[in-house]
Amino acid sequence: MAEPSELTRHIESYVDTSRSQTQQTASLDSITSLVKNDLITIETLVKEMEMYLTTTDNVIRARGTLLLAAVLGNLVLKPLDNVTIHSLIGFFTDRLADWRALRGALVGCLALLTRKSDAGIVSATDAKAVAESYLKNLEVQSLGQHDRKLCFQLLECLLERYPNEVASLDELLPYGICEAVDGEKDPHCLVLAFHIIQALVQLFPDPSGPLADFLGELFETLESYFPIHFTHPGEDTDVKRDDLSRALMIAFSSTPLLEPSVIPLLLEKLSSSLPSAKVDSLKYLSYCSLKYGADRMAKHAKAIWSSIKTAISTSLKEPTESITSESMDGLGFRENEIAGEALVLLEIVVLQNNDLYLSLILDDEDISTIFNIITSYGSYKDIPLQGKERLHVVGRILYITSRTSVVSCNRMLETFFPRLVDILKLSMRNSSRECFVNFGALYLCMELLAAGRDLIIGSNYSISADEACFCILRSSSDSLINALCSNLAITAQEVAHDVDVYFRVKSLQILATFPEDHLPISKSAFENCLTTLTSIIWVDFNKTLLWKLALKALYHIGSFVSKCHESEKVLSYRSIVVEKIVSSLSDDNFTLPFPLKLEAVSAIGASGMNHMLKIVQGLQGAIFASISDSFVHGNIRSAEMAIQLLQCYSEKVIPWIKETDGLEEVLLHFAVNIWGHVESWISHDVQVHEKGLLDATMMAMKLTVASCSGEIQNAIIQKAYTVLSSNTSLLLKESTLTSIPIRLEGLQLTERADSFSGKDELVLSLFASVIIAVQPRIEIPNVKEILRLFLTTLLKGHVTSAQALGSMINKFGTKSNRADISYGFMLEEAIEIIFKTKSWNSQDNGVVSSDDNEIGLTDLCLGFVDDRQLQINSIVGLAWVGKGLLLCGHEKVKDVIMILLECLLPGGSIRASKSKQGLSERISEKDLHHSVKKSAADAFHLLMSDSEVCLNRIFHAIIRPLYKQRLFSVVMPILQSSIRNSDSSFSRSLLYRASAHIISDAPLIAVLSEAKKLISILLEGLSIFSEDPLDKEKLYNLLLVLSGILTDKNGQEAVIENAHSVINCLTGLMFYRHMMLVRETAIQCLVAMSELPHARIYPMRTQVIRAILKAVDDPKRAVRQEAVRCRKAWASVASRGLHF
Q1: CB atoms within 10 A of CB 586
Q2: Which of 98, 354, 394, 627 has its CA 20 to 30 A from that of 331?
Q3: Is 40 a domain residue?
Q4: Domains held by the chain: number
Q5: CATH number of the domain that 29 lies in?
Q6: What range(s) does the MMS19 N-terminal domain occupy (predicted)?
Q7: For 641-692, how does the pLDDT look when each residue is reduced to its tens digit (9 = 90+)?
Q8: What stretches of 293-353 show up as alpha helix (H) in DSSP?
Q9: Cα separation of 759 and 757, whole Å?
């Protein structure tokens, strides 16, 4: 047993109010541990604490009681015998009368009452005694927030765990609860209070029971909180207004006994001027209707119906000015949350009391008189705004009511549909225009049709096709489709309002997608529908809305027939829509512009798997025909078509196939097909006339390979290697290879990428695309040979080879992580080949030969061969290799960075130290050309930026977290030091350029942490990038970084010290003529500058205002708007100065 003296020390430490919170917590933990580990018993603890629990010193007694309660709270799972529990609960029950020690008493009661049954629980008798003491002694609203919360928690616990015992207290319980809750304002306490009232009323369900006399008081208590007006400070983020509102709603609906008071209150609050009160009233009505039941709610039906109608009508906003091809509810009036909740309530009450509400709706004067509006106005534009509002409200009510149940659908269609069809027939018969359709009648017909269709689709049970509503629809469906088709043909030739067009197409779509069992449409009507819509696609492409609506309708119809497997409709859709759209790809007789044709192709294909397979077949045929015509015959128009076809395939088809199970073979077929065609193309004199075509083909190949599984990728890469090795002169026999793929005997280094033959460039580019896109573990045939191939061809300026080399480096496994090793070849071996091979031999005349001085990739970057383009190609290749290393987190990237930095410095030490016999004399007095150094500076942009063509997650690159931050933290200190130590203005400008690349591509949070050190470098970078129009994108990206700094508090501190320089820079960029976004962003930055401390910016106000006066005449509207805003901001700076 532990020494009592030790226990006493812990008790005294906790009881002593002068001790810190940390010390008190440690003492509590120590005492808990002693009891939990049976070093002392609860009895021993109580005996030791007797003085602290009974002393007349209020503070010590309160602390002692709280200590015992806290220990018990930590021991809820420790078994205690009944005698001990009885003794303890009796003590805490008595202490409820001791307001000085009340908190400890509450915590102690809660700790004992919430114990698990297997650890020993409080008896029913003792629990009732707790409740009696609670109700007798506690005045809850006189306590502090924390104690009130404990009181509510204790009461909630008693109601939930000991309901029979507290119920026996009869009237005393509801009286005490009403008294405890009345006036409560704390959100946490209110949530508990509402839950307590819910539990209370469920405890006494008998209308004549103990609760009867307190219903009025309970309602008054709850009523005072409705609607919830939440003004509590923002730190209480764990209790939201919605939490309170829902708790109150549940309390309102907890007993039908409150219905006579609650429903009139909710209906009254619907007239409130507060939108939130209306929304809450409608939500509460929906919830309470379900809880109170149909019988109790019947007497409120008229008032509820009137309120629903009013809520929808008064909450509408002006309809949207333009209709898009997206779906639209009603007539396009914007419905707020009030209207939405009103429609939810309508659906609930109609479903609950069908006959009553249907009678109210059908007898309603506003509903019945809507036919006056319909017959008075033929088209949408003729209907006045008030009439449109009424038509919209009626349409939404008809839709919701009809969709609710079969009974509702039958009644609504029996009442309205025949009459609406008669109006449609009469309008078509009496109109001077052929096939004129009455808009109002068509709109309401469409709402009823949509409701019937959605009822079938959304039902959890089978609905008979013999229901009256479907019989009514069947009698008119074919004639309605044919009339709409004729009308659309006329619509295409006339100017019709967008809303008229929308509902004509939408109605046709709904009829065509109605479940066949319930509304069988004749084959001729269905095909008439498809023919009409496809005709719009081919002929009426100049009517944008009509064209998009028709295409969307065809997509939905295609999706419908695909899912329903209705063979007759499937065949019709395939022959009229799919096959025609496929044939158009190879037929130039269609007048539809090619981009729109491809949009239609992708939309129709996405409507179903079988449709997509047919589309893919046609697309592939058109792609290969166009590419062949371009590569073999040099047809420029075919090249342009092929580019668009490939973009469609890459952006629309491949993502769809990737998301659809079971279509991987399609991707394999496409990739293998490309290589099959490559074999036939290279037998001719292939010419790559259009670089964009090669780029599009490579991207399609990459996305195809990247979307495949590893097994499929293996098959593709084997096919690609077969074509590469057997049909080009790029690879030599492996026996002739030493350490570089090709010993460039006598090859002039001035030869460039365009020195490749057309077939070699094509095969090499496509093979590199495959390598870029494969997963890390995919086996590459003859991997060393491929590495050397890419290493050699990148020196000739083939950038895709460099990207492929970087991708290979990125995906190889390492010795330290053998689980990642692919087919036994490791990253270290690849690095050895790339960086340590010395197989090129240089002569003074710029020719590479097999003797003289051996050099490697690093030497070429550093200028050991006097050939400018070769150096640039080497640097680009090294940068892509470095990017691959950077992304996977390999240490070798530091060597790449040092080589690039060495290129930036004049007469660098690395080159001097590496000069060899025969080379040193040639380079000792020479420096790298300016273009080479600029290339080295721009390599940092390549390292830091995100690439869309390789080394990204789409193409399975290994990307370690925070790689940009790591490069930023490594490189920026070196660049800053180099800038300070540089004596050459040109070298300094290149260092600034490299730094600007690092800053613009680094995460903003990394830049902000070093903002004070970097602001001057950033400004220099902006100046450098503004000199060359080709750098406009880089300029804009760097300017965005400055914008981010200006909007951050820490960043503003860095700007304040350089305010004059920053403003000078920004006022200059306001007139940058090569990019509007630069001008706009510069002005936005100046607006942010106006918020800086007055003393810092006031001296520059005149300079800024003068510049802004010129910017307000900018040719671009966005810039002019920002200039006006900036002028106001800086005018206020001047006025603040006058006031000062």
Answers
A1: 11
A2: 354
A3: yes
A4: 1
A5: 1.25.10.10
A6: 46-312
A7: 999 999 999 999 999 998 888 888 999 999 999 999 888 887 777 676 677 8
A8: 294-297, 301-314, 337-352
A9: 6
